[in-house]
Each structure stands twice: as C-alpha cells, then as structure tokens.
Amino acid sequence: MNSPNKIFDSLLVLQYQTGNKKALALLVKRWHTKLCKQAYWYTQDIEASKDIAQDSWGKICVRIHQLKEPNNFGSWALTIVTRLALDWL
Q1: What whole-number distance in Å separates Cα of residue 23 and Cα of residue 9?
Q2: φ and ψ at 57, to 5 degrees?
Q3: Distance between CA atoms of 87 and 82, rounded to whole angstroms?
Q4: Mean pLDDT computed over every residue of the chain
Q5: Phi, psi of 12, rounded to the nearest 5 degrees
C-alpha cells in the first residue's frame, strides 16, 4: 500500500513532467534534507554531502522526464545520490 507521502511525491513528479515548475520546487523542499543525509552517511563530510545533493538535483532535473514510475521517485533519487557519493569516495 502506498503511503500518502509517496502518493503526493508521485503527483508532484507527474505535474513537473507536464510542465508545472512549482512541483519541482516542492519536491526539492520535501527531499533535499533526505538527499543530504544520504550523501553524508557515505561521505561523513558535511560540505561534500551538500555538494553531492546539489549535483544530484541537477541529474534529477535532467532525467525526471524519463522516470516511468513516479511512485519510485524517492528510491530513484536516493540511488542517484548514493552513486554520486560513491564516486566522490
């Protein structure tokens, strides 16, 4: 069963994919801290984790239109952060 947060994130992804720029701002507001924490878990470096999260948002913005399962946004975004953090290491 989908949680309300996951459904809301999915709706925001769909809205952004159809051209609503404000939807991305809400996704960033909801997910930026989580992405920073994920990066920090790997790097143990606060500045590097902020940079990795920022770089991740760049990749997310470019690739979000290719995301076929909006319900998977959270795990998809965290995977991007994880890969960038591992590259940093």
Answers
A1: 9
A2: -60, -35
A3: 9
A4: 95
A5: -65, -40
pLDDT-derived band at 4, boundaries 50, 70, 90: confident
Among residues 26, 7, 4, 27, the alpha carbon closest in space to that of 69 is found at 7
- What 3-state class would DSSP assign to 85? helix
Asked if 13 contacts 67 with a C-beta cutoff of 8 angstroms, the reply is: yes
pLDDT at 3 (0 to 100): 85
Q: Which residues contact 86 (CB under 8 A, 6 or more apart)?
A: 42
Q: Please choose, from the candidates 46, 51, 55, 44, the residue with its C-alpha nearest in 3D space to the C-alpha of residue 77.
A: 55
pLDDT tens digits, 18-56: 999 999 999 999 999 999 999 999 999 999 999 999 999
Taking the model in full, what pTM does it have? 0.91
